[in-house]
């Protein structure tokens, strides 16, 4: 639910030429854009590789918009969006789409909720009808019974994804350790069982009227489309959706940890795990791309510093991974590790601290950055082949920068980074004495 | 007058466009005719030594995917050495040709390539995806990996310790426990499918360097090899580049031979419980030995499974998730392999609904053997058939489709016939297929959950005795991890 989706696709075209030898092609994705009178932003992109069309609709609302006592509500609401609307009976949303050979889903993060569908191009009008109907007329069909049944489903999602999964509680605990009480990121997107139980029908109405309005949304239609006809269809289906009040973006003062905050959980696991976490710059702001590259230099491939030393050479870790989790109100950088049997968390953490100290002192070699760039490229390469992922990226760029075709600018951020930039980013953003250290230890060890 | 004016006003009002006019929402828009399903042509060539090379050219992105398939895998693991194919495959990029493990990885990463090897029960694929401009150096690395892997003892031991640690972690992971217990329950200990393709810790611990060398020589063998090349590359150019690296590859040593398929003895119903105290959910697996890839019921079973548990609106998901709220999701699947693979229903349900959920699953498995009503069938046919073109979007998608053709010897007309074959499936065909493939009364039921909460529910179902399994019974003993000798 908190998938990292930005900065994907970014480095794709670097790969088209030899390694860092010639000027790269400009990366650009063609689109047309217009705004409906009700405020809905619309972006169209043609890609005729296969006869499939994708709709991708972002609402700029996520768990950060939740009220105290209603954590998890944005995600519960996402579930309700599939249960029928004014002109679509309960159960028909999925039935209609599957009946034409379509697929659909949605995801909720702190910052946004996205809804997406893929259909054969002859059925383009169907997802437009369904999306516009739930945007305009959801409240005409939603009932307390529907809320009840999806509440049970969401509780089981929480059990399956967090409570009955090894180490799953880490991501329920982490937000409270990183952010002060009341901060919009201080609870997990899935929320708490208690709050999910407490959510009522009035909450549904309020939330829908406040956030599920065309002026808080952006629709991408991508794939095997005729832009002129598609524009007319979008205008047709969304024209009767009424605008809502303007939605003010969530804003908060910057947060800062002043010490090392430690916590230890127990779980049914064979080996312990620890996550180190720091506050880092927000998505697409200065420092964000640097931290992405730092993550790659640390653990992005076999020759990366932490992987090579801990897993390959010393062989004291089973797993080590670093990543920059980019978010709108401020990102986090995490390093997560599991020791081999017979080795300890502290033993591994000591090596990690040595490596971070070294990076603070001395810039990495140019080759490490090139390798990291290539690694980022490789992992994102497949995405540019997929119209559905381009659709989501166009929305992401539009919502976060105002420019759907931000591909080249995003790429340029990484190209501009020097070895010294990385050193300085580690000095500034990854201090050893201001971070979270969250550990999970096996139950059997805790009871010893 | 007033009335006439009002009428005129109303006419005018309805003519005023709001956007492009107020849409008629009384019925969902009907789709037009399905798009022309132009399946990409597969071009078939061969290298001088006879190795087939199949192409699907696609010029959208300057990327090429090269896959080298060997028609053998974990099914060929020798008795007592389960996991040998997996271990051999995993060692291929741990140093090859002139490069040690780290040097090899660096060379691959600097090309921006993805290069890796994986094996299943039926086949082993060394897969490469790389920008077209760097195809040649990337294929040099691929050739090293396949023809000249080092299998250095230190690398073998390092990898062995990683695998053994993973086996250890698996013992605490509920879905992994459920899968392993289920496969053992339906296939037993002596049929290869009764153990995961990566084997068991105990057998893995005993594999030697000589085992790996011997297996590699027989697995990576020209007689078992074929290529699938997709993406932005001219076939003539690719043939030259491949020919220079693999075209004169011959060997006098024997290749792995096909494992004769044996019938799996029927076991009858069994109810198995793996106790995991305090689990908030029970992980469930219900199923039996299913069908092989060559089954004449392939298309009817696709439709049947779509209705049963292969889509969001499937009966299992609607029942357990939408109607009852027992779970986040439920699904079913036929794993079709060279020999009959498992059919299984998978879900995780809240602990206090374990018995109720199993009863619903069994009732759906009974019901699916009855003729499927036409509207439900129609939806499933359309879903399965018309989502097919979306499976051909990327180089990797294309390669996966063509690899399946190669591995299972599917006819040239497979792609072009696919949609039509699905659309002609009727209720009689699914009922026939269900009768042949599914016998709910003979299925294994596996539960990984809290015995205290679950046992009374299982007993109340009255399905038969509940057998409590210890993890050792299906995963073998836990193995000490040898400490590193860096």
Helix content of chain A: 40-55%
**Number of helical regions of chain A:** 16
Secondary structural class of chain B: alpha+beta
Task: Describe the strand arrangement of the main beta sheet of chain A, using strand numbers.
Answer: 1-2-6-3-5-4
- Largest interface, chains and sizes: A-B, 95 and 90 residues
**Overall 3D shape of chain B:** globular
Structurally, how many domains make up the residues of chain A?
2
Number of strands of chain B: 12
How many angstroms separate the termini of chain A? 36 Å
CATH topological fold name of the largest domain in chain A: Cytochrome Bc1 Complex, Chain A, domain 1
CATH class wording of the largest domain in chain A:
Alpha Beta
CATH superfamily of the largest domain in chain A: Metalloenzyme, LuxS/M16 peptidase-like
Number of domains of chain B: 2
Low-pLDDT residue spans of chain B? 1-19
Oligomer: heterodimer
Number of extended strands of chain A: 11
Separation of the first and last Cα atoms of chain B:
100 Å
Biggest β-sheet description of chain B: 6 strands, mixed
Task: Characterize the structure shown.
The complex is a heterodimer of chains A (448) and B (486). Chain A has 2 domains: 12-17 and 25-238, Metalloenzyme, LuxS/M16 peptidase-like (Cytochrome Bc1 Complex, Chain A, domain 1, 2-Layer Sandwich), CATH 3.30.830.10; 260-446, Cytochrome Bc1 Complex, Chain A, domain 1, CATH 3.30.830.10. In chain A, 41% of the residues lie in helices and 18% in strands. Chain A has helices at residues 73-80, 92-99, 125-137, 144-163, 170-178, 193-198, 201-211, 227-238, 288-299, 305-313, 345-361, 366-384, 387-401, 407-415, 419-429, 443-446, and strands spanning 32-35, 41-46, 52-59, 103-108, 113-120, 217-223, 260-267, 273-280, 317-325, 331-339, 435-442. Chain A has a 6-stranded mixed sheet, with helices on both faces. Chain A has a 5-stranded mixed sheet with strand order 7-11-8-10-9, with helices on both faces. In chain A, helix 1 packs across helix 4 (144-163), helix 9 crosses helix 15 and helix 11 (345-361) packs across helix 15. Chain B has 486 residues and is α+β, with helices and mostly antiparallel strands. Chain B has 2 domains: 43-246, 2-Layer Sandwich (Cytochrome Bc1 Complex, Chain A, domain 1), CATH 3.30.830; 270-473, Metalloenzyme, LuxS/M16 peptidase-like (Cytochrome Bc1 Complex, Chain A, domain 1, 2-Layer Sandwich). Helices cover 42% and strands 17% of the residues of chain B. A 6-stranded mixed sheet of chain B has the order 1-2-6-3-5-4, with helices on both faces. In chain B, strands 9-10-8-11-7-12 form a 6-stranded mixed sheet, sandwiched between helices. The interface between A and B is large, with 95 and 90 residues.
């Amino acid at each position: 639910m908190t998938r990292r989706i930005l900065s994907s696709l970014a480095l794709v075209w670097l790969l088209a030429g030899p390694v860092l030898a010639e000027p790269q092609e400009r990366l650009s994705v063609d689109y047309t854009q217009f705004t409906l009178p009700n405020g809905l932003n619309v972006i169209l992109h043609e890609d005729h590789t296969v006869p499939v069309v994708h709709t991708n609709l972002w609402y700029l609302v996520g768990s950060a918009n939740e009220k105290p006592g209603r954590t998890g509500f944005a995600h519960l609401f996402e579930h309700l969006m599939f249960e029928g609307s004014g002109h679509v009976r309960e159960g028909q949303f999925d039935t209609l789409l599957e009946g034409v050979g379509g697929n659909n889903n949605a995801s909720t993060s702190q910052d946004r909720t996205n809804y997406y569908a893929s259909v054969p191009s002859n059925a383009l009008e169907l997802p437009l009808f369904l999306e516009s109907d739930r945007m305009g007329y959801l409240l005409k069909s939603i009932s307390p019974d529907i809320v009840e049944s999806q509440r049970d489903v969401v509780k089981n999602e929480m059990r399956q994804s967090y409570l009955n999964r090894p180490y799953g509680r880490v991501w329920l605990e982490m937000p409270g350790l990183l952010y002060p009480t009341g901060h919009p990121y201080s609870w997990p997107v899935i929320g708490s069982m208690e709050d999910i139980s407490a959510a009522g029908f009035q909450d549904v109405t309020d939330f829908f009227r406040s956030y599920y309005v065309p002026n808080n949304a952006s629709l991408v239609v991508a794939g095997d489309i005729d832009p002129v006809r598609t524009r007319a269809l979008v205008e047709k289906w969304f024209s009767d959706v009424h605008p809502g009040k303007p939605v003010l973006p969530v804003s908060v003062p910057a947060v800062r940890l002043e010490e090392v905050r430690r916590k230890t959980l127990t779980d049914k696991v064979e080996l312990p795990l620890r996550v180190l976490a720091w506050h880092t710059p927000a998505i697409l702001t200065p420092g964000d791309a640097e931290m992405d590259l730092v993550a790659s230099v640390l653990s992005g491939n076999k020759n990366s510093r932490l992987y090579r030393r801990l897993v390959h050479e010393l062989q004291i870790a089973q797993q080590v991974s670093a990543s920059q989790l980019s978010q709108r109100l401020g990102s986090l950088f995490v390093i997560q590790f599991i020791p081999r049997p017979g080795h300890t968390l502290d033993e591994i953490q000591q090596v990690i601290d040595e490596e971070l100290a070294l990076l603070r002192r001395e810039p990495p070699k140019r080759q490490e950055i090139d390798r990291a760039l290539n690694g980022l490229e490789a992992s994102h390469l497949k995405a540019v082949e997929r119209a559905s992922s381009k659709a989501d990226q166009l929305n992401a760029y539009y919502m976060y920068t105002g420019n759907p075709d931000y591909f080249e600018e995003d790429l340029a951020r990484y190209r501009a980074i020097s070895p010294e930039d990385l050193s300085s980013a580690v000095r500034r953003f990854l201090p050893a004495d201001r971070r979270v250290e969250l550990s999970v230890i096996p139950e059997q060890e805790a009871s010893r | 007058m007033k009335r006439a004016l009002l009428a005129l006003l109303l006419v005018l009002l309805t003519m005023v466009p709001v956007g492009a006019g107020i849409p008629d929402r009384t019925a969902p828009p009907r789709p037009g005719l399905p798009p022309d399903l132009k399946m990409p042509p597969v071009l078939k060539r061969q290298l001088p030594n006879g190795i087939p090379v199949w192409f699907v050219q696609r010029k959208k992105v300057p990327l090429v995917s090269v896959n080298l398939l060997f028609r053998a895998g974990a099914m060929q693991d020798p008795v007592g050495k389960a996991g040998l194919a997996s271990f051999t495959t995993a060692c291929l990029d741990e140093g090859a040709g002139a490069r040690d493990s780290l040097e090899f990885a660096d060379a691959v990463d600097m090309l921006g390539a993805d290069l890796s090897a994986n094996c299943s029960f039926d086949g082993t694929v060394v897969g490469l995806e790389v920008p077209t401009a760097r195809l040649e150096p990337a294929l040099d690395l691929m050739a090293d990996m396949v023809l000249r892997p080092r299998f250095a003892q230190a690398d073998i031991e390092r990898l062995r310790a990683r695998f053994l640690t993973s086996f250890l972690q698996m013992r605490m992971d509920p879905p992994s426990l459920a899968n392993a217990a289920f496969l053992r329950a339906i296939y037993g200990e002596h049929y290869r499918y009764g153990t995961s393709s990566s084997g068991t810790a105990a057998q893995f611990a005993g594999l030697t360097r000589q085992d790996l060398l011997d297996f590699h020589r027989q697995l990576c063998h020209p007689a078992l090899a074929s290529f699938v090349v997709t993406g932005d590359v001219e076939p003539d150019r690719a043939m030259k580049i491949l020919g220079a690296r693999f075209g004169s590859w011959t060997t006098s040593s024997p290749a792995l031979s096909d494992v004769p398929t044996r019938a799996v003895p029927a076991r009858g119903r069994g109810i198995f419980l793996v106790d995991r105290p305090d689990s908030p959910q029970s992980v469930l697996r219900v199923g039996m030995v299913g069908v092989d890839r060559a089954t004449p019921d392939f298309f009817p079973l696709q439709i049947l499974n779509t209705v049963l548990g292969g889509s969001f609106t499937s009966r299992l998901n609607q029942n357990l998730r939408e109607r009852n709220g027992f779970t986040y999701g439920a699904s079913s699947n036929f794993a079709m392999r060279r020999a009959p693979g498992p059919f299984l229903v998978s879900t995780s349900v809240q602990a206090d609904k374990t018995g109720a959920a199993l009863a619903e699953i069994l009732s759906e498995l009974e019901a699916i053997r009855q003729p499927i009503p036409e509207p439900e069938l129609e939806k499933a046919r359309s879903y399965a058939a018309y989502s097919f073109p979306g499976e051909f979007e990327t180089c990797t998608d294309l390669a996966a489709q063509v690899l399946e053709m190669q591995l299972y010897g599917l006819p040239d007309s497979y792609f072009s016939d696919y949609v039509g074959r699905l659309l002609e499936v009727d209720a009689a065909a699914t009922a026939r297929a269900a009768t042949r493939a599914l016998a709910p009364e003979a299925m294994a039921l596996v539960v990984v959950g809290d015995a205290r909460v679950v046992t009374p529910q299982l007993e109340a179902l009255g399905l038969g005795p509940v057998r409590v399994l210890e993890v050792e019974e299906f995963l073998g003993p836990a193995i000490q991890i040898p400490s590193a000798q860096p």
